[in-house]
């Protein structure tokens, strides 16, 4: 009997980040997974390696559909050929098999299969969940000790989706109550969410309905569209589940699938290229850091320096997707900041004469580092 280990990917200890700017999370351990295993028998180890392989594929693609892709299924039969090392460890009296895979070959496999690749930059999601576990409705807090929280930890690990939960201290309790979450009073919840600096917040409920559990969820951006009267959910999902654990799994899966659509990038098959520039590059150490950053972005096939003028460095980029994919992905990373283009300002006037369409401006960034 094999099952996925809990807790390798840690749900974020966000107290230290409350004073920081909004940021995504860098997810580590994308090349490894661990499964519990009954013994060190060769047959069980072989099966465990396959399950660990599937877990790593899910982490790096973000979508369940990747597991049934024919190319992935073919590789599954020889999953050990992509393995770099394995080992056993014990935790709470249970034996685990930990497996590491060649990350570059995993990414190449996903590319060959035409699947999206989700890099290590992942959006941070604050979860406002009302659940009825002890005979009364309550908001699941950061300090909660419960089976549902354990399941969130497990799903966060298996899908590599960074999650955090509200403290539900006096500040939170004064702004958000159970009825706010159940009624989806988004203004109250959005206001309370600001202190956590997450990219998105999730509003969800899980409640018993006879022999099953009814769940509902909606995912919202951190900031409201200034032209909108109220916040609109990016996705919604609802349904019935046999257990609380199944409901949590469905909620996290729906969230992950949305993020895959936004931030995971498949090879378009086209030769898309663009240029970007970094300003205020003051030394070689900073330049090397920028080059390393660009090299690991899942949107970029290759990056090379086009020119260096003073403290401005321009890069030529070959892309897997399109420019929108690239800039959306870069907007997640706390190491970079974008400088808005002045192009739009130049268009905000009327003229009786025809005006040539301006050339597309190079997007300018600046390096903030760690």
UniProtKB/TrEMBL annotation:
It comes from the Bacteria. This is DUF2066 domain-containing protein. The lineage of its organism: Bacteria, Pseudomonadati, Pseudomonadota, Gammaproteobacteria, Alteromonadales. InterPro entries: DUF2066. Keywords: Signal. Residues 1-24 form the signal peptide.
